[in-house]
């Protein structure tokens, strides 16, 4: 049975090369599986860190809403209301039981925006009526503050036009039909799932190529054993045993290649994560082989081994079905086949230069097949790259420095006004991540006219949105969500619970990524996000070809100065200047305060934003307007600082007694100050405190504070249904913690009312929510502390709330090294996420690592697969190579001929692979499988991507040609003319064929061309 050991156990160098080729192709499947599963698990982990998500859905009638509403859901009947000016608003009926949702309490009548009682007209399906509307004294909770709120009976009188169903949270952050109340989590969870489905499609295509490559390599290794099979069969070995032995050999080769490919796949994926950490790319991917992944990989390896066994058996069956003398002797050349021979007969030299000299032209077909995998994955990666661009800032945007993501940024909306004053179009924008029916999409809060000026958006259908209740939708998103002008869309909050309903006023087109987005008004976006009034996430500026190098284009974007200064003292004006140009500029900034004027020159690099201090001498006492560039600010010059009311509420219950604290702007208490509201007055004591009796009539009341010649005017909105809350002050220590420090938030609560206050106080910080019930007697003070979690570098807010009202807030900054934080996260020593902004950052970083690693793995796989294809082509022409060598061609010259052939074949194959890849993506788009994050990915590549695919395909073909050719050039021409000797030179297995002296017939697929050492 020595021949069985030879067939099964003795492998040549060529066999080991075959194992390597198989391993390189298997590495793609293993690496892709590890990356896709890890990305999915990490996205789920990011979502699991946050509370489950409630959802809201819209229905055409109350009956339809009640039919689908669950037992814990809340149905909100809706209708339309017209203001005294005729402006339409939504009116919603609030039920008694709101199922623990953050909905406002049912009002006694109808309440709405504004500070005075007015008459509104309610309009429904059964008619209309005029209804008195009182100022809303309580928070609107989830509902927009611009909506009217009334009782179900009041709305039933006019007939509801439609209804909302708000379903409580479930354990699944993306669960529920309709729109999630916190859209960011669903946006990234559902969007990442879309991406992974697309990636799985590419991996499936790669799996087919892997199977084909494996089959090809196995057939080639068995055909290499034709001399051995002849000897064994001629000495009496039965065909059945030979087939079994060769099948076992093929299975062993496939299994060995699979195991090695597993190792390569694991190493490459972990290396990709390590490189991402080193270069500072945020990622939480941890590529570990869990039991679940191990079972999947074992299944893949088992299938590949099975493919090897079956292919080996079928190939051996064909070989052993012939008489021993005919094994391997069916490759005789046909004297007239082949494109090269026909072209030679036609003597078309120009065409001959375009056809391979040595390799067969038909090699283009299998090479195209293998390069198609690479092309499909590269096109998918290039298309998916648009996703990151859609949620990131670019060089023509202004965002807050050192924030982990634009959604964490808050900059003054006035930046856009400053740019507009200099003639530069600018669009203040708020980013919103939301989802509808598990279809994620990006929304923006914008001023539509400013947005259109920057992006060149043009209306395709409908009209420009004019009110907060209207929106514009990009043509691509309109196609995805099946929206058209006049349709209503429910939109949930982005980073905190909220909801609203907007009417699509029109559809627009920009020709860019904005066509996949929804545009709402800035006030609506602030309701759906945590962006403060007067702020935006970013300001986008126009990209212009005109020179912006002149100094006049450096812009003053912010001015900070004390509101009070003493006469003749130095006033320090903090001025922020921004250079929006591509070149360094010098800008002269002039600041004036009364008769005092100072000019300073500021040097700014391209796109630099810097804050400088300008000192002025304060004029005599009085009220002055400080002017710096286009910015102005009121400054009081007086010996005594202006007055201030500490923690004075915006709303208060009627008829209550409120303790007021009068301070000056320097923080000192003001004694003997008079506090007046209507005809009621009170005087402060030595601590600056006084008890003030509030009016019993609802409405907005003026509050006047006087001390000496100083006066302060405030207002308070008095209503019957306002809850009393404590006054609060919050601080964080240390002020600037490191990434290793857990800072402490300290909240000082004081009861300013003349009755006991009992409430639940909530402290919200990054990854921290601390709730505590407090009970305070009048004038009592207590302190609440909580420990905040470790965070990456950046700025983080801390907010104190009670009964849906913000009592106090502050920010603190964590300092440290971003790369260290990313390394900690990737190693698993820290839970992923630093607030929703960090979750967004890490989710996008994970996708970048995934796509980059897949591209690298695809390149490695194509080299292996193409090497197998070209190895067969080169070995089929080894007689031609031998003649070249025998007639004086050096190995280097011969290698040059093969490389030239590889370039010709690679060029045609790469172009063909590009066309195949485009066809695959077109097919995915046709069945709706090419959409992720609400963006329909482009199936046609851009010119740079197409050139990259073709160039990459040619380069990979060259590498594969070198791998396939170099081993043959190391043997003598005589060995190439005698395949059995060539085989023995290429192996050390001691097989019978190596000693038999039998020679193989010429197996080239076309006549041998006459060597021309001066050509090509």
Automatic annotation (TrEMBL):
Annotated compartments: Cell membrane
Top-rank lineage group of the source organism: Archaea
Bilayer topology: Multi-pass membrane protein
GO molecular function: transmembrane transporter activity
Claim: Membrane is one of the keywords in the record: yes
Bias type Basic and acidic residues, positions: 118-132
Pfam families: FtsX (PF02687)
Family statement drawn from the similarity comment of this UniProt entry: Belongs to the ABC-4 integral membrane protein family.
Name assigned to this protein: Peptide ABC transporter permease
Native organism: Natronococcus pandeyae
């Amino acid at each position: 049975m020595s021949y069985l050991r030879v067939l099964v156990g003795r492998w040549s160098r060529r066999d080991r090369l075959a194992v390597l080729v198989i391993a390189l192709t298997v590495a793609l499947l293993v690496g892709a599986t590890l990356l896709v599963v890890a990305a999915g698990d990490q996205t789920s982990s990011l979502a699991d860190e946050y509370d489950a998500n409630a959802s809201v859905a819209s229905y055409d009638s109350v009956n339809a809403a009640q039919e689908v509403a669950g037992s814990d859901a809340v149905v909100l009947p809706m209708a339309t209301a017209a203001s005294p000016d005729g402006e339409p608003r939504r009116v919603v009926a609030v039920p008694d039981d709101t199922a623990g949702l953050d909905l406002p309490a049912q009002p006694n009548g109808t309440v709405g925006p504004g500070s005075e009682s007015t008459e509104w007209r309610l309009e429904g399906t059964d008619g209309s009526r005029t209804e008195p509307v009182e100022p809303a004294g309580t928070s609107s909770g989830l509902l927009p503050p611009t909506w009217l709120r009334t009782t179900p009976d009041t709305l039933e009188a006019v007939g509801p036009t439609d209804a909302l169903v708000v379903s409580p949270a479930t354990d699944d952050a993306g669960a529920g039909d309709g729109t999630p109340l916190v859209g960011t989590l669903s946006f990234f969870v559902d969007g990442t799932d879309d991406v992974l489905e697309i990636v799985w499609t590419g991996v499936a295509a790669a799996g087919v190529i892997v199977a084909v490559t494996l089959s090809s390599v196995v057939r080639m290794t068995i055909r290499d054993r034709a001399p051995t099979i002849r000897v064994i069969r001629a000495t009496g070995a039965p065909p059945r045993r030979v087939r079994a032995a060769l099948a076992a050999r093929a299975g062993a080769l496939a299994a060995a290649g699979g195991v090695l490919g597993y190792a390569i796949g694991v190493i490459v994926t972990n290396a990709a994560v390590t490189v991402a950490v080193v270069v500072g790319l945020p990622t939480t991917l941890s590529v570990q082989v869990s039991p679940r992944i191990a079972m999947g990989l074992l299944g893949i390896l088992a299938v590949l081994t099975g493919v090897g066994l079956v292919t080996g058996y079928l190939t051996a069956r064909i070989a052993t079905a012939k008489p021993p003398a005919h094994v391997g002797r069916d490759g005789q050349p046909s004297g007239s086949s082949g494109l090269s021979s026909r072209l030679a007969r036609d003597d078309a030299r120009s065409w001959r230069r375009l056809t391979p000299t040595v390799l067969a032209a038909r090699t283009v077909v299998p090479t195209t097949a293998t390069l198609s995998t690479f092309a499909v994955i590269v096109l998918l990666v290039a298309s998916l790259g648009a996703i990151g661009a859609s949620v990131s800032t670019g060089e023509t945007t202004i965002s807050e420095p050192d924030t982990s993501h634009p959604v964490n940024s808050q900059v003054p909306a006035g930046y856009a006004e400053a740019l507009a004053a200099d003639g530069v179009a600018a669009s203040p924008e708020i980013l919103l991540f939301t989802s509808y029916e598990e279809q994620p999409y990006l929304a923006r809060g914008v001023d539509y006219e400013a947005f259109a000026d920057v992006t060149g958006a043009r209306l395709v259908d409908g009209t420009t949105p004019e009110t907060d209740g209207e929106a514009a939708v990009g043509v691509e998103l309109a196609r995805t969500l099946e929206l058209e002008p006049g349709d209503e869309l429910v939109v949930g909050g982005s980073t905190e619970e909220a909801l609203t309903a907007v009417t699509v006023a029109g559809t627009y087109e920009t020709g860019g990524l904005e066509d996949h987005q929804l545009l709402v008004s800035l006030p609506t976006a602030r309701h759906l996000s945590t962006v403060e009034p007067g702020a935006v996430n970013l300001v986008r500026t126009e990209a212009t070809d005109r020179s912006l190098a002149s100094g006049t284009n450096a812009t003053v974007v912010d001015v900070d100065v004390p509101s009070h200064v003493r006469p003749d003292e130095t006033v320090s004006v903090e001025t922020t200047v921004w250079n929006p140009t591509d070149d360094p500029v010098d800008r002269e900034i002039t600041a004036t305060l009364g008769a005092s004027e100072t000019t300073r020159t500021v040097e700014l690099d391209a796109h630099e934003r810097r804050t400088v201090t300008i000192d002025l001498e304060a004029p005599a006492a009085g009220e002055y307007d400080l002017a710096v560039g286009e910015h102005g600010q009121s400054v009081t010059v007086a010996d005594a600082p202006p007055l201030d009311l500490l923690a004075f509420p915006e709303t208060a219950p009627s008829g209550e007694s409120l303790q007021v604290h009068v301070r000056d702007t320097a923080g000192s208490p003001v004694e003997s100050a008079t506090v007046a509201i209507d005809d009621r007055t009170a005087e402060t004591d030595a601590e600056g405190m006084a008890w003030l009796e509030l009016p019993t009539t609802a409405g907005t009341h003026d509050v006047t504070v006087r001390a000496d010649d100083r006066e302060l005017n405030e207002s308070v909105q008095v209503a019957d249904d306002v809850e009393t809350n404590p006054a609060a002050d919050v601080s964080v220590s240390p002020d600037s913690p490191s990434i290793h420090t857990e800072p402490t938030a300290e909240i000082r609560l004081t009861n300013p009312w003349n009755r006991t206050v009992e409430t639940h106080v909530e402290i919200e910080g990054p990854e921290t929510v601390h709730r505590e019930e407090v009970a305070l007697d009048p004038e009592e003070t207590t302190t609440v502390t909580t420990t905040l979690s470790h965070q990456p570098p950046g700025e983080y807010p801390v907010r104190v709330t009670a009964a849906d009202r913000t009592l106090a807030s502050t920010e603190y900054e964590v300092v440290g090294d971003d790369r260290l934080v990313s390394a900690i996260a990737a190693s698993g020593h820290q839970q992923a996420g630093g607030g929703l902004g960090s979750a967004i950052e890490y989710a996008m970083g994970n996708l970048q690592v995934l796509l980059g690693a897949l591209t690298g793995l695809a390149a490695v796989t194509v080299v292996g697969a193409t090497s197998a294809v070209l190895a067969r082509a080169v070995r089929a022409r080894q007689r031609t190579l031998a003649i070249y060598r025998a007639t004086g061609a050096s190995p280097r010259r011969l290698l040059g001929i093969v490389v030239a052939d590889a370039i010709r074949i690679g060029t045609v194959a790469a172009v063909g692979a590009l066309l195949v890849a485009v066809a695959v993506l077109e097919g995915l788009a046709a069945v709706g499988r090419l959409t992720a994050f609400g963006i329909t990915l482009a199936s046609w590549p851009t010119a740079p991507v197409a050139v990259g695919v073709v160039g990459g395909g040619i380069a990979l073909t060259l590498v594969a040609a070198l791998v396939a050719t170099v081993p043959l050039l190391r043997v003598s021409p005589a060995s190439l003319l005698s395949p059995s000797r060539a085989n023995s030179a290429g192996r050390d297995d001691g097989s019978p064929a190596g000693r038999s002296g039998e020679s193989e017939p010429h197996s080239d697929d076309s006549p041998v061309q006459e060597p021309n050492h001066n050509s090509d």
